[in-house]
Amino acid sequence: MVGTASTDSEGTQEGGEAREPLSKPLPHKVPYVTLNNGVAMPQEGFGVFQISGRSKCKKAVMDALECGYRLIDTAQFYRNEGSVGEAIAESGVPREDIFLTTKVWITHYGYDKTIESIRHSLAQLRTDYADLVLLHQGVGNYLWAYRALEDLCHDGVIRAIGISNMEPDRFVDLAKRAHVIPAVNQIENHVFWQQREALGIMREYGIQPESWAPFAEGKNGLFTHPVLTEIGEQYGKTAAQVALRSLVQRDIVVIPKSVHRERIEENIDIWDFELSDSDMNQIDALDTGKSLFGYARMFSSMQRFGLFTAKKKY
């Protein structure tokens, strides 16, 4: 789940223009973080939440790959794994050069169902392995779902496993029960909710934080915010670029999203400047200490599927 500067109408046209395989040097070189199992993960990637329509999603992913992104983040719930797989297959970028993330949705929790759903996801993505698989929400039968991830990781089907939208009490409980400590926790994190306490606990367990909402979906006027805009003017950068840069300087992985080529390029152009301590202090002061989304959207999904179930033990 990530924000973008604008909302686009859903693309419905099938197909798309043919493209030559990538041959030019990458315009941006994104650094990597090392996960707790030794796997290297790009610190910036491209998210595809709410990019529906096969041709639109495919084009956005191919644009992102051409601009230098090497982390692509999708999910079963997004219903666009097939478009992502098609884009990667036709991009000319070797599969081993791409860090591919997907997430298991709550209706697929449970040991056998989780394994079956991941194999279906891999078929959609046109690959025989995933670099990272996350449990999308910390509700329902997630303990057995996580055990399935552990076994698939052991078998080499998944290179790293993790969680998403888990609050500290739940991910600490999971970490204590698990055979494999989660490598990543993908959470809401942006300049308006910086989650310092949660980040501190994650780091105690060696869990890499990843932001699914680096732009706060444009809330609180992020794209024109005076503090971010003024800081950006010092470096010739936009408020959005400053927001992203502040996160990566706190060692957070970010996955911005856009369907506009110029914004896709803008979002990855954050690696040639560094915010000062003064800049970071000003951005720290923007923290409201609370979510801008709450759990309303998540729980509406839970209610639809009747997933307020008690936690089950292994």
From TrEMBL:
Occurrences of domain NADP-dependent oxidoreductase (ranges) = 54-287
| GO MF assignments | oxidoreductase activity, acting on the CH-OH group of donors, NAD or NADP as acceptor
Q: Where does substrate bind?
A: H136
Q: Where is this region: Disordered?
A: 1-27
Instruction: State a single Pfam family of this protein.
Output: Aldo_ket_red
What the entry lists under InterPro entries is as follows: AKR, Aldo/ket_reductase_CS, NAD(P)_OxRdtase_dom_sf, NADP_OxRdtase_dom
Keywords attached to this Swiss-Prot or TrEMBL record, sorted alphabetically, are: NADP, Oxidoreductase
Q: Which PROSITE patterns match?
A: ALDOKETO_REDUCTASE_1, ALDOKETO_REDUCTASE_3
Determine the domain of life of the protein's source. Bacteria
Q: Where along the sequence does the record put site: Lowers pKa of active site Tyr?
A: K103
Listed Polar residues bias regions: 1-12
Residue numbers annotated as active site: Y78 (proton donor)
Similarity comment: family membership: Belongs to the aldo/keto reductase family.
Q: What name appears for this protein in its UniProt entry?
A: NADP-dependent oxidoreductase domain-containing protein
